[in-house]
Amino acid sequence: MQKKVFLLAFLFSLCLSCHRVTGKWQKVTLLYFDTVCEINLLCPTQDFDSAKAKIKEIFGDIEKQFSPGVLSYSSPKTLTLYRKALAIYRDSDGCFDITVAPLSHIWGFHNHSYRVPSPEEIDRALEKIGMDKIAVKNDEIGLLPGMELDWGGIAKGYGIDLASQAMIQTGVQNGFINAGGDLYCWGKNPEGQSWRIGIKHPRQSGVSAILSITDTGAATSGDYQRFFIQDGIRYHHIFDPKSGYPSQGKQSVTVVGPETLVCDALSTALFVSNEPKKILQRYPAYGAIVIDSEENMIFFGKEFPIHVQK
Q1: Fewest CB within a 10 Å sphere: which of 108, 114, 138, 270?
Q2: How much is the CA Rg of the chain, to the nearest whole Å?
Q3: Angle subtended at Cα 264 by Cα 175 and Cα 186, rounded to the nearest 5 degrees
């Protein structure tokens, strides 16, 4: 499953226990969505196996339903996520668009055979792009010939939201779920404080800033994970659905807010958009940290505690 970025998490020793909370910190690493998923929960040892099994069930179901090439568009989860994607598509003036799969194909990102397509190829691909071309009838998504959906900018966040809410509903009061940079954290970290989340520097090792958050999701879109360089030009996988070319002007966008799936989709939308502030005005509970092509850090929307690294 496609996607995009690394969001580093600064976690402290997991053998420490939170104050006046029963259980101990349990940690497991899973592999879903073509990435490493890190799960950290404060719970009794006897409950951890069932918690882990529930997360694996949720992640496995999301991965199966939203993997590239899946042609079933009538399941309840598919319709739910489609409607959420459509809302963000409209709110972002088309900057977030799950129909960009044809662009990923012609640029070679689907099979790592990277190339710069001809303008004619891009024009043909653009004819198949646009969520306004999708029709939903009798609770089934209908696509035009040649169209294909790419859920990579939203499905992983959806899975994280489902998994974290399942854990909270079963009584896990402190936890952290991170799937390759899309994450949700709640309660306290092992030191009894808010979770500290590092935003990766897009051109150097280390981090650009550290967020201090809890009961919050976060996701980053960046030009540094999936890209190739040809004739000195960096081409990455975050496409402008209107031009058919990789978006320019930014190196990374991190979005923080209540739902990880919204953070996931908005990070793509803001990366593409020339008016990120306008989009975030429609999402007042969310904030964004943008690192532009000159490595300037710019903040939009709701403010969250953050320490900028020197």
Answers
A1: 138
A2: 19
A3: 15
What domains can be seen in the chain, in order of their start residue? Answer: 7-68+153-308 (3.10.520.10), 76-142 (1.10.3980.10)
Rounded CA gap, 147 and 264, in Å?
22
What average pLDDT score do residues 138-143 get? 90
pLDDT (average), residues 264-271: 98
pLDDT score of 74: 81
Instruction: Report pLDDT digits (tens) over 63-82.
Output: 999 988 766 788 899 999 99
- CA 155, CA 221: separation in Å to the nearest integer? 14
* Other Cβ atoms closer than 10 A to 69: 8
3-state secondary structure at position 42: strand
Quote the strand ranges of the chain, DSSP E: 7-10, 24-32, 35-43, 135-137, 140-142, 175-179, 182-186, 195-200, 207-213, 216-222, 227-230, 233-236, 250-257, 287-292, 297-301, 306-308
pLDDT of residue 22: 65
Average pLDDT over residues 286-300: 97
Question: What residues have CB less than 8 Å from 137, skipping those under 6 apart?
Answer: none
pTM of the model: 0.91
Instruction: Tokens 């976690």: give the residue.
Output: 11
Give me the helix-helix angle, 155-169 and 260-272, nearest 10°: 160
Tell me, what DSSP letter sits at residue 3?
-
Q: How far is CA 7 from the centre of its chain?
A: 10
Q: How far apart are CA 1 and CA 3, in angstroms?
A: 6
